[in-house]
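Residues determine shape. Take a concrete instance:
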Amino acid sequence: MATSAVRRRTRRARYAARGAAGSPVMRGLARAGLLARGAMYILIGWIAILIAAGSSSQQADRSGALHTVAGTRFGGALLWLLFAGFAGLALWRLSEAAYGSPGSGGRKATARLQSLGRALIYGFVAYGTLKYALGAGAPQSTNTQSVDLTASAMRHPGGQVLVVIAGLALIAGGAYLAWQAWRREFLRTLETGRMRARTRRVVEWLGLIGGIARGIVFATAGVFLVIAAVKSQPQQAKGIDSALRTLAATPFGPLVLVVVAIGLIMFGLFSCCQARWFRS
């Protein structure tokens, strides 16, 4: 009897927790976070286009996007909105890690681990945005972060191997993002039944091209991380900005950078669409 009562209370507590995870407040935090992520990718893509045109020296990464926002008329207020959005996104992903996410199917354990990793990443982004909004220091560029972390790791025994593993993980992660986009797996996270047919096609193309472009950028950064480790040259490690600039040095020149930049803008727009129609 006592055991059955405990089990019932446990089930009720679990259902209440899941209900809180899917509450209007949590959905609002998720939407705010997806909008913040979308704005960030749109800005990064736009900066990359300006770099391809030779009319910008700004970093095409999160730090450059925040600098761009801060330089606008309402920069201070916008930074606080971005912080709130990324903090909300971190909390939403944390709730998914704790209680599961829709559309995970038979991959519940894997999906929860992915959500936990995303929660940590967005928490880090939110923290950096908060520091910048408070005037406690501008965020480091991803290039500087990559070189510093690589140099620190390679000073320790086995650090070179760890950097290679991290680079291979980035390559695999980028390939996985592109593969997910190609398979249109992002549609599982959207309430497509609420869309008109034309809207669904547009959102599908934004997610497809944007997801592939995002995967290419991550994989490119991973390649240079492996090169830095193999050559024992930490300065070879590249963040998002340098990875994008490297694309401009390919045989097709700035055209490749423009194509990838447009893809990042499309992913930003998809993220905004996801905020509108995500499946909670």
